[in-house]
Specification:
This protein is an alpha+beta fold and 111 residues long. The protein contains 3 helices and 5 strands.
């Protein structure tokens, strides 16, 4: 995905045993959006989770490759298509209606 001269990347923080995290990753693959998955409960990823204040899962970010500026992000259950629509709106500058995500699963918080 490109934004002018910047290449955009998607980062998904999730848990391997989380239904919502699995579904989001499956949907991303189904609609053909490449992403990097980061297991937020793996000890080796604690520093990156702390850096981005990841405490609810899934947590998805779209960022610019060159400078790592986060363009759009969402914490909690969301469909891949809805997130990508948010990214498109953000990039194009179109003002849409306010997005209201579903309630975050209380069993799906970072351990």
């Amino acid at each position: 995905m490109e934004n002018g001269s910047k290449k955009l990347k998607i980062r998904v923080f999730g848990a391997a045993d989380c239904t919502y995290c699995k579904r989001l990753c499956e949907e991303m693959s189904m609609i053909g959006v490449p992403y990097d998955f980061i297991d937020a409960n793996a000890e080796e990823n604690n520093s990156i989770c702390d850096k981005y204040n990841i405490d609810k899962l899934p947590h998805i970010q779209c960022y610019a490759d060159a400078d790592k500026d986060i363009i759009c992000e969402h914490a909690g259950p969301i469909s891949a298509q809805v997130f990508m629509n948010k990214v498109s709106e953000k990039i194009s500058g179109k003002k849409g209606s306010a997005f209201q995500g579903r309630t975050i699963c209380k069993n799906c918080k970072k351990k």
